[in-house]
Design goal:
Strand content: 5-15%
Strand order of the largest sheet: 3-2-1-4-5-6-10
Oligomer: single chain
Order of helices and strands: EHEEHEHEHEEHEEHEHEHHHHH
Number of helices: 12
Number of strands: 11
Largest sheet: 7 strands, parallel
Length: 343
């Protein structure tokens, strides 16, 4: 099977390409950035281009049996227009090219950000979609585009992952790991008694691969860890694993939200609205549908995922230099550096 991956040089795209190549599939990727992965050199057809350009996406999907649309602008992009340009307009261009090329199946990697901040848990796939911030809104629009193309004959599946973590996942987690390594106090919004489900990237990859040929056309599927505790329990498990002297420092949620909102508007914080509006609340989804329809079962708990990612971070810390806006490089701590100095 020839599988095309948009956003192939991103965190998920890279792990997905490795899994597919190991499984004997042909893989073609498209990204603005290079793959920069020695293990995939010469084993993947790597295209450089933009999902918003029809010519680039046509090259990606030509002759492909399936497409995983993983390209996305992250919540920390500076404007609604920047996020929407990639997540909505890019999706429209990509789906149109896939339909034109006769791609057998398209798997859209969406997000549980489409559910907003619901009061009832676990969240099910048929619960209302109320996106938080520009990112959540853009993901809802992308899903609606996907459904529109499905009505026109394109076979589609929507995957809604929880925040996924694993080796090479940096972003905001680089800040957490760095502070734990240094034994600093770790600020958490609220008292940490809320349950916040994560997801191992390898478990997300397994779900996405199963979606390529499972009888799930037209479905939307939640995926998340099967085992998770409270935020306090999971972070204390990571701190214990790290042998760190770090302690959790609760921060009143409401005043912190006001401050973080101001820093976000000033482009001085790596935390977007989605992060700080959900971090102190329960946030977990039902994964029964994915279990039943895909025969999928997540392998790693929240703590196991965090610990494995932390170990990778320690082993590769010296290589992590550049500040950027993707999950494969550290984010600029900027204003949080003030908090770091007093933690």
């Amino acid at each position: 099977m020839l599988v095309a991956i948009s956003g192939g040089a991103g965190f998920l795209g890279l792990h997905l390409a490795r899994r597919l190549v190991a499984g004997g599939h042909e893989v073609r990727t498209l990204d603005l950035a290079p793959l920069d992965d020695a293990a995939l050199e010469g084993r993947v057809e790597e295209l450089r281009g933009d999902v918003r350009r029809t010519a680039d996406v046509r090259r990606l999907v030509a002759g492909a049996d399936a497409l995983v649309h993983a390209a996305a602008a992250l919540p920390i992009q500076v404007s609604r227009a920047a996020i929407r340009s990639v997540n909505v307009e890019g999706a429209a261009v990509t789906f149109a090219a896939a339909a034109e090329a006769g791609v057998g199946r398209v798997v859209l990697i969406s997000s549980t950000a489409v559910y907003g901040v619901p009061e009832r848990h676990p969240i099910h796939e048929d619960d209302p979609l109320v996106g938080v911030g520009h990112y959540g809104e853009s993901k809802i629009e992308a899903e609606r585009l996907c459904e529109a193309f499905a009505r026109r004959g394109l076979e589609t599946v929507i995957v809604r992952p929880k925040t996924f973590v694993g080796p090479e996942r940096l972003g905001v987690f680089e800040i957490l790991f760095d502070w734990i390594r240094e034994g600093r106090r770790i600020p958490i919004l609220g008292d940490g008694s809320n349950r916040y489900q994560l997801l191992a990237v390898e478990d997300l990859v397994d779900a996405a691969v199963r979606c390529l040929d499972a009888p799930v056309a037209g479905e939307a599927l939640n995926v998340g860890a099967g085992t998770f505790g409270t935020v306090r329990e999971d972070l204390e498990g990571l701190i214990e694993h790290a042998g760190s002297g770090s302690r959790l420092r609760p921060v009143p949620a409401r005043p912190a939200e006001v401050v973080l909102r101001g820093l976000e508007l000033a482009h001085l914080s790596p935390l977007a609205e989605w992060h700080y509006r959900t971090a102190h609340k329960d946030s977990f989804v039902s994964i029964d549908k994915a279990r039943g329809l895909l025969g999928w079962e997540p392998r790693l708990s929240n703590v196991e995922t965090l610990c494995a990612t932390y170990d990778w971070y320690l082993d590769h810390r010296a290589e992590l230099r550049d500040v950027g806006l993707t999950h494969r490089v550290p984010w600029d701590q900027r204003a949080l550096g003030l908090l770091r100095r007093v933690s």
